[in-house]
Design a protein that fits this description.
Number of strands: 10
CATH class: Alpha Beta
Structural class: alpha+beta
Strand content: 15-25%
CATH topology: paralog of FGE (formylglycine-generating enzyme)
CATH superfamily: paralog of FGE (formylglycine-generating enzyme)
Oligomer: single chain
Shape: globular
Number of domains: 1
Number of helices: 4
Helix content: 10-25%
Order of helices and strands: EEEEEHHHHEEEEE
Strand order of the largest sheet: 1-2-5-10
Length: about 220
């Protein structure tokens, strides 16, 4: 059920089908049920961003490199524009959807990283990135065929930041209430991260208006 989207100028990107299910979320092993959804096979690339937004903010230039130097607010502008272009319902993933997909969905093997216990097989991080992002899809995918979910760039999620999952939704939806209204969840680690920061369960946060070359995103839809 995977498929390819074709933007009006001919630029393509691929979406991966994630069959829903129940899993134990986070280090707390909180039982959560996630509905079916689609997720980007790759981080949003500079080619896709330029096709939609008509500009390229990235520091590390390359059509197939993931776009960075974009804030959480910028991702919402992108989502709004691509939904108008394509008549779709794209959005940022919830943190729960991100983790479920990174684990491999129903094929979860309890691995340390998204697709392997050896980060160098599936991700770009401080030891192998040569100090920059790398084109998407060069490392091995996880069991669902999704690439770069650990390393390359941290990934914005829809959720407000909370230090733990106490009182978090149990239906896979984003947790968008709480005191830290200006902070959002990022997951996955980046080209600059040490290996411990690229563990599948590692959680981090940043301000929703921050732009730097460590954070990108991928999109989902139901």
């Amino acid at each position: 059920m995977d498929y390819t989207e074709i933007l009006p100028d001919g630029t393509c990107f691929e979406m991966v089908w994630v069959e829903g299910g129940t899993f134990e979320r986070g280090a707390e092993k909180q039982v959560v049920t996630v509905p079916d959804f689609y997720i980007g096979k790759y981080l949003v690339t500079q080619a896709v961003w330029k096709s939609v937004m008509k500009e390229n903010p990235a520091r590390f230039r390359g059509e197939n490199r993931p776009v960075e130097n974009i804030s959480w607010i910028d991702t919402l502008k992108f989502v709004n524009k691509i939904n108008i272009l394509m008549n779709r319902g794209f959005r940022l993933p919830s943190e729960t959807e991100w983790e479920y997909a990174a684990r491999g969905g129903k094929f979860n093997q309890g691995l340390q990283h998204a697709g392997s216990n050896k980060l160098k097989e599936i991700g770009w991080y401080r030891k192998n990135s040569v100090g920059q992002t790398q084109p998407v899809g060069l490392k091995s995918p996880n069991k669902l065929g999704i690439y770069d979910m650990n390393g390359n760039l941290w990934e914005w999620c829809a959720d407000h930041w909370h230090k733990n999952y106490e009182d978090a939704p149990l239906n896979g939806s984003a947790w968008v209430e709480g005191r830290l209204m200006d902070e959002r969840v990022v997951r996955g680690g980046s080209w600059y991260s040490i290996e411990e920061e690229c563990l599948l369960l590692k959680r981090y946060n940043d301000f929703k208006n921050i732009r730097d070359d460590l954070i990108g995103f991928r999109i989902v839809r139901n």
